[in-house]
Specification:
Largest sheet of chain A: none
Number of helices of chain A: 9
Radius of gyration of chain A: 54 Å
Shape of chain A: rod-shaped
Number of strands of chain B: 2
Shape of chain B: globular
Oligomer: heterodimer
Distance between the termini of chain A: 153 Å
Order of helices and strands of chain A: HHHHHHHHH
Strand order of the largest sheet of chain B: 1-2
Helix content of chain B: 55-70%
Structural class of chain A: mainly alpha
Radius of gyration of chain B: 18 Å
């Protein structure tokens, strides 16, 4: 046997019914054996659940918690440090490496070039003289300079 | 304003003493809430530490939109749900052994809550506690959560809805069904001597 009011009992026990409905159920409970039995069973269940013994925090509980907090704080600081330098130092390292590569590249390029021969050295030392060599080899032109410049002039 | 909310806002502003006040006030409640789901004191304490660590870390994002305890148990619910979904807890529901792990790591049967009375009474008491605990564990996880939050921690349907992320109507149904299921389990046990 069931009663249509039974479905309201759980909410009634929890105080979750509007005042009008709550009064209606309270009145109904006085006259309905089915609902009264159900009400007693359900409240009995609640009492049994609440009677379960509680455990006490162990002695090390708080210490272990603060250790976890300290570990977390440390990790947070470390990751903040890494985040800052993780973004900041890379361009500097990359450009430094590139500069080093260029310096070493030039150095090895020079090493690969053949060493100057004694003739090269002599030629370098007498470069000024050699530059004047064209003029020296054509000195005869200067002897006839007047005749040359007179060519083409109206007589 | 809720006094706990005030403490939390003070902690948010940098007062670490305010966090200590909340931690001291709620640590036992949270450990016991977690214990109802894993039945292992050491694990329950680890879960409770995770809950408080979430509070500590999440302080910057805290907004006082409800009672502090509603928010705290919302975090605890989330932590316990994650724990319960781990496969190794499923077999525990079928186990009748209510063992606890002591501070020194020793595993032993739970001490009786009431040490007075004859050995027979004490045994009966222990068996009754085990049966209630096991009956609770046999409920579907959301029913168990809703019932625990209501009966053991006194939250309203609205607050539970927020904590387990469902409507107030769903909470009403979960609690009603949870009670009916517990009733059926106990009636079966009383009739046939079968354990729930």
């Amino acid at each position: 046997m069931t009663c249509p009011y039974e479905k309201w009992l759980s909410q009634y026990i929890d105080g979750e019914l509007p005042p009008e409905k709550r009064n209606q159920i309270r009145t109904h409970l006085d006259s309905c054996d089915i609902c009264r039995t159900e009400y007693n069973t359900l409240t009995g269940l609640d009492i049994q659940l609440r009677s379960l013994p509680e455990i006490e925090p162990s002695e090390g509980f708080e210490r272990a918690f603060w250790k976890k907090v300290a570990d977390w704080e440390e990790r947070k600081e470390r990751s903040a440090f890494r985040a800052f330098f993780g973004r900041g130092w890379r361009p500097y390292v990359v450009s430094g490496m590139a500069a080093l590569m260029i310096v070493f590249g030039l150095h090895f390029f020079n090493l690969a070039a053949p060493a100057p021969t004694p003739e090269d050295v002599m030629m370098a030392e007498q470069m000024d003289l050699l530059l004047d060599y064209d003029i020296i080899s054509h000195l005869e032109l200067l002897e006839n300079w007047e005749a040359i410049t007179a060519v083409g002039e109206p007589s | 304003m809720d006094a706990d909310v005030k403490q939390m806002l003070e902690f948010q502003a940098g007062n670490h003493g305010a966090f200590q006040v909340l931690f001291t006030k709620y640590k036992k409640k949270i450990i016991n809430f977690c214990y109802r789901f894993c039945r292992d004191q050491a694990r329950a304490e680890e879960l409770a530490q995770e809950v408080f660590l979430n509070v500590y870390r999440g302080a910057a994002n805290y907004r006082p939109t409800a009672r502090f305890s509603t928010w705290l148990f919302q975090i605890a619910t989330h932590v316990c749900l994650n724990e319960m979904r781990k496969a190794h807890y499923r077999h525990k529901i079928d186990s009748i052994d209510a063992a606890v792990v002591t501070d020194d790591g020793e595993r032993r049967n739970r001490e009786l809550s009431d040490s007075s009375g004859s050995p027979e009474e004490m045994m009966e008491q222990q068996e009754r506690e085990t049966l209630i605990q096991q009956a609770l564990l046999s409920l579907p996880e959301k029913q168990r959560l809703a019932l625990s939050l209501r009966v053991l921690n006194g939250f309203s349907y609205q607050e539970i809805g927020r904590q387990i992320r469902c409507s107030e109507n769903s909470v009403k149904t979960l609690i009603h069904r949870g009670r009916q299921q517990l009733k059926t389990l106990f009636q079966k046990r009383d009739k046939g001597g079968a354990r729930p």
